[in-house]
Amino acid sequence: MLYAKINKLSFVLVSTLMACGSAPSHKTLEKDSISIEQKSTVKALEPAGNYVSADYEQRSKGYDWVAVTVESTDQNNIRIKIRSRADLKKPTCTLDTEAMEIGAGVFEAHLSNGIAVFEFKDGNLSIRPKTEKDAGALYFYCSGGASIAGNYHQTTAKLDTVQVK
Fold this sequence. Notes:
Elements lengths: L1 H21 L1 H21 L4 E4 L13 E7 L4 E8 L9 E10 L2 E6 L2 E8 L2 E6 L20 E6 L10
Protein name: Lipoprotein
Keywords: Signal
Organism: Pedobacter chitinilyticus
């Protein structure tokens, strides 16, 4: 009889422990936390948009200009397309690359011959080499001695599709 009571008690304890171990509400809570975390991370990464050089506003007067289009690819990476005026002659600058976030608003792109740093702040974009040694890499994607290095401001207007290809 004592043996039967111990077996029943053991069964009740094991059943109770197994039921507590599955805790379905904990998994639901984890999924909700992950979902909230992803939303806040994606929202913090907002450099997406079009950035143009100062001469973009003078494009109707024949000035050469450069545009940078930025798209978020995931939480820590962006796709960058750099194009220059291409309606009167071959474009001066062309580059397609991806960059990884290395700090708040700062991204790095490993180009074929150096590293470029893209820094976004207050609606502006600054492109610079990571080190002096990388400076030549920013000239490689342009012709006529031009470079992608420089400062660009964000524009909400659509890029001039007649002048950029």
